[in-house]
Amino acid sequence: MAGASAPFKAFLDATSARWAEQRWKDKLAAGFTNSAGHNGDKLNTLQQFALFAMQHGMVWVGLGLLPGNHSSKGSPDDLNRLAGFLGAMAQSNADQGAEIMPPLSDRRTAEHLGARVAQAASRWRHGATISGLDGIR
C-alpha cells in the first residue's frame, strides 16, 4: 500500500551495515512495481527504491522510453503504456491470476528495463573506472 511491501521494506531497513561500509557504492540499480490500479501510487514506490539506491551510492538506471498509449494512435499494447520513467510499471487486475497478468505490454516493458540494465552494466564494465571517474563515457 503506497510503497514497497513490508518484507521488501524490512530488507531495505536491514542494509544499514552495508550502507555504513558503502558496500553497494557504484553498483547499478533499477526498479519495477506492480499494482491493481492504473496509478496505484507506483511512482511513490519507484521513488522509494531510487532514493534507497542513492543513499547507498548506487547508480540508478531509468526506463529510457517515451510514454506509450498516450495519443489517439497509441495502444494498450505499447511499451511503457503507463508512462513511467523512473522504472517499469505494471498493472494487474486484482481478480486475475499471474498466468495472464500483468499484460504482455507491461512484461515487455520490464524486459526492456532488464536489457537496459544489462547494457549499462556492459558499458560500465568496459568504459569506466570509478576511482577518479576517468574513462566515463
Protein model, in words:
There is one protein chain. The chain has 137 residues and is mostly helical. It has a single domain (22-128), classed as 3-Layer(aba) Sandwich (Rossmann fold), CATH 3.40.50. 38% of the residues lie in helices and 9% in strands. The chain is built from four helices and four strands; from the N terminus they run H-H-E-E-H-E-E-H. The chain has helices at residues 6-13, 16-21, 42-55, 104-127, and strands at residues 28-29, 32-35, 59-60, 88-91. The strands form two sheets. The protein has a two-stranded parallel ribbon. Strands 2-4 form a two-stranded parallel sheet. The longest helix has 24 residues, at 104-127. It is globular and about 50 Å long. The relative contact order is 0.15. The model has no long low-confidence stretch (mean pLDDT 91).
The major β-sheet equals:
2 strands, parallel
Low-confidence stretches: none
- Provide mean pLDDT, rounded: 91
CATH fold field value: Rossmann fold
Spatial strand order of the main sheet:
1-3
Q: What proportion of the residues is helical, as a percent range?
A: 25-40%
CATH architecture group name: 3-Layer(aba) Sandwich
Strand % is: 5-15%
What distance lies between the first and last C-alpha atoms, to the nearest angstrom? 39 Å
How many strand segments?
Answer: 4
Overall geometric form? globular
Specify the number of helices: 4
Order of helices and strands: HHEEHEEH
What would you report as the Rg, rounded to the nearest angstrom? Answer: 17 Å
The chain-level structural class is: mainly alpha
| CATH class category name | Alpha Beta
How many separate domains? 1
CATH level 4 superfamily: Flavodoxin domain
